[in-house]
């Protein structure tokens, strides 16, 4: 077997690694994986998609792990052995705290798989890279020191603040074709650009992999996206995923892996594919992947990973890194790249897609001001060398015409390596010449860490090349309309300051009175002289030895870090139904993990559950009355009002030892893989959440923390339950006692005393039921280790 185009690519630039590497730790064990797959083939006896090959070759027990066949995709629960874990600094705080406890009780000295921590989310964006980084290091010193000490103790690679954004670093250093990895961040699938399965999970799942416990995943369905034709002019891979998000919507990928195939895949750069995979998270996909291509091979060489490329070439030659001929997908979507035009998505949701040619009309129809207030490029999604050379081309054209950007224009490099290479190749200076501010290599304005001084509380529109655009996501202002577009469209529009400017057709008027029109941008996917690593003191040594004597210190009076007390089991005295639960509120409409546990200034409390829980659901809408952050305590003691903030009512119930439940709408918990969105309700005493539907990662996170997620069998029942009602489960005991087909009903007693019963559905596996019974997955794992 020859991977398409590989035979033609002997001219790729091979660069020695400027970063120290331990190749065995970053090369998937291909012979073992291929052998595992042979066992699976003996059971399934049918052609396999690429996603299936990668998943099934990572089964804990490849011989018996799939039972005796039958339907797997969408039905079977897989026990998997991921090959790597990566964590960002916000979620890693929880994992490090939990791991320290788990490792101590199990007597483990080091992580079972190579693991890395990346300091990126806690860096604020305000003045520019140097000042922002220095200030953020000082204000987060305690947390960075804590994470570094945990990393030292357990042999984890620690990427210092300033080294870059987790997903860009993973792509440059750890991702490899055919690998299965977990990351405690929803955009972990970015690494799929290198033909692997990278899955965003909560911290408790990461702990599974780090302790060598089988990691469970319900086998996803596989959607095939067949790419034909060629991108041209202004259209980029960003436009492909923006277009697909419009087609699939934020729920279209739930429980599914998106696998791209066809001739159109092979013409895209590896980093361009990473952009597509990154934003698969926006349609709720488990992850996205692509067959091994010549561009992936070149990228591995350019980033100093020739030995990994060589091993991948051999694995591809044995048919491991692409789908089998005639493999069947659960659905196939056809996209002709030649038909794609630049697309702009938003505001407030990533699936509201408008082709650029219709965007001006759309803006006018909505009655929005024709005014752009800022342009932001970069982030983990779009800061590749290709992206940056293409925007630099536009900046050079503009500079030659005497133009500078009309609005603040901010650029976030994805990694220190990208930043240093941009500087060496005069890309940064070209952008700065036309007015750009280059920010630190960190998440900054993508995660509410943009300390924006203008437009506070005012309606305004910004364009970003980021991936997510929920309300308040960038500057904390819920009136900021955030539109997503490719870096080149963001850049060109920043020179006009107008929201209806179409750089493909419109001209700008120069001071001289002449008109200027941009030529379509051109760039280069990889630097001809290779990447330069920049400041290597920010990088870890590869696979450091654990230092068991290192102290992991949490100060008793810390406001940033707090030891976690295990949650207790809700079942007592042999009763296997949940205790009677008070309904805290009925949440209306879109409720993302940003609504449940806001980011921005709250990120600093990620390691302190008591403090961060003060933000529980503070931007959620109460369906009874339509207010934001209002809940009702119908049993308020004398002297307290019934209506209060949501966290305050939750605290009142906790103080009364009254367990409670939430009634929620469709796709509850979409967005970031935010552990705290499950931890916080549980901390305040929530045992059950009943939804019209759940987003995958969040549903799993709830299960891990011992909260039972149930789906309304009839979505209309949502409106029949109100705050103050009491809910009891009926039939949960049957399920817990081993009757898998048992239905859980809810007996509802309303505040007026009326009683009725409704059926529900669930997705609890046998193992997940054990977590529920133990009070949390961690309680269960700990009990198994002792
Ligand atoms: Fe950081 Fe934004 Fe990427 Fe998340 S999506 S990792 S916040 S840059």
TrEMBL record:
Predominant subcellular localization, coarse grouping: mitochondrion
GO molecular function per UniProt: 4 iron, 4 sulfur cluster binding; aconitate hydratase activity; metal ion binding
One GO term (biological process): tricarboxylic acid cycle
Source taxon at top rank: Eukaryota
Domain Aconitase A/isopropylmalate dehydratase small subunit swivel: 582-714
Entry EC no(s): 4.2.1.-
GO cellular component entries: cytosol; mitochondrion
Pfam families, A to Z: Aconitase, Aconitase_C
Compartmental location: Mitochondrion
Listed InterPro entries: Acnase/IPM_dHydase_lsu_aba_1/3 (IPR015931), Acoase/IPM_deHydtase_lsu_aba (IPR001030), Aconitase/3IPM_dehydase_swvl (IPR015928), Aconitase/IPM_isomerase (IPR050926), Aconitase_4Fe-4S_BS (IPR018136), Aconitase_4Fe-4S_dom (IPR036008), Aconitase_dom2 (IPR015932), Aconitase_mito-like (IPR006248)
Keyword Transit peptide set for record: yes
Cofactor(s), names only, from the UniProt record: [4Fe-4S] cluster
Domain Aconitase/3-isopropylmalate dehydratase large subunit alpha/beta/alpha: start-end pairs: 52-497
Cofactor comment: Binds 1 [4Fe-4S] cluster per subunit.
Keywords associated with the record: Iron, Iron-sulfur, Lyase, Metal-binding, Mitochondrion, Transit peptide
Similarity field: Belongs to the aconitase/IPM isomerase family.
This protein's name: Aconitate hydratase, mitochondrial
